[in-house]
């Protein structure tokens, strides 16, 4: 029989990665955009989707409905693997502003070759945006077509919970696996994220 002082975690409250969205915005259609699509295809092994401009912006030379960006959505173990590479480039550090009020977080990297992709002179170097959507078991009821439900207030993910999950799972996991003592600058309490 379990001890009375020991409180079990509710498995329905467990946070997990629902999806990882990768985005490269080139700002123009043509050859540069197709090369950016090749970068995402090499990284994910999936066919990326092209995004169109919503408005015409003359100062940037962008026309409405012109393809200007490419993105890809990754789920499961592959999402965790790619996120691990991206966080390694960022040295496992995120600011408080990287987290949204709904418990998701995002960050960007300057060069895609930092992720371990071999440099190809014909492709060039592209920056990359990562956006991680967190979820709990039962979140799919809000996405259903028939008999759609709403996620209860207590079941929603808040910013502080996402930050705590990031500290416990991602940063602690990365340094424990390598057998290295966690550096002092990564031992922040929950409220001391760089603002």
TrEMBL record:
Residue ranges of every copy of the Large ribosomal subunit protein uL5 N-terminal domain listed in the record: 10-63
Keyword Cytoplasm: no
Transmembrane annotation, as ranges: none
Family per record: Belongs to the universal ribosomal protein uL5 family.
Taxonomic source organism: Oryzias melastigma
Keywords for the protein's UniProt record, in alphabetical order: Ribonucleoprotein, Ribosomal protein, RNA-binding, rRNA-binding
Gene Ontology MF annotations: rRNA binding; structural constituent of ribosome
Protein name stated in the entry: Large ribosomal subunit protein uL5
Gene Ontology cellular-component terms listed: ribonucleoprotein complex; ribosome
């Amino acid at each position: 029989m379990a001890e009375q002082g020991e409180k079990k975690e509710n498995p329905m409250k467990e946070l997990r990665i629902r999806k990882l969205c990768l985005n490269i915005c080139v700002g123009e259609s043509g050859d540069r955009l197709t090369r950016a699509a090749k970068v995402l295809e090499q990284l994910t092994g999936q066919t990326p989707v092209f995004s169109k401009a919503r408005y015409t912006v003359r100062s940037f030379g962008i026309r409405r409905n012109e393809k200007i960006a490419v993105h890809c959505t990754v789920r499961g173990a592959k999402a965790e693997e790619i996120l691990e590479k991206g966080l390694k480039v960022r040295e496992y550090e995120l600011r408080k502003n990287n987290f949204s009020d709904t418990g998701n977080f995002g960050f960007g990297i300057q060069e895609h070759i930092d992720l371990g992709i071999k440099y190809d002179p014909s492709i060039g170097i592209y920056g990359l945006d990562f956006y991680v959507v967190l979820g709990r078991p039962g979140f799919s009821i809000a996405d259903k077509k028939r008999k759609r439900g709403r996620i209860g207030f207590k079941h929603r993910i808040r910013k502080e919970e996402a930050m705590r999950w990031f500290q416990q799972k991602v940063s602690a996991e990365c340094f424990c696996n390598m057998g290295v003592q966690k550096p002092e600058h990564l031992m922040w309490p929950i409220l001391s994220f760089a603002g």
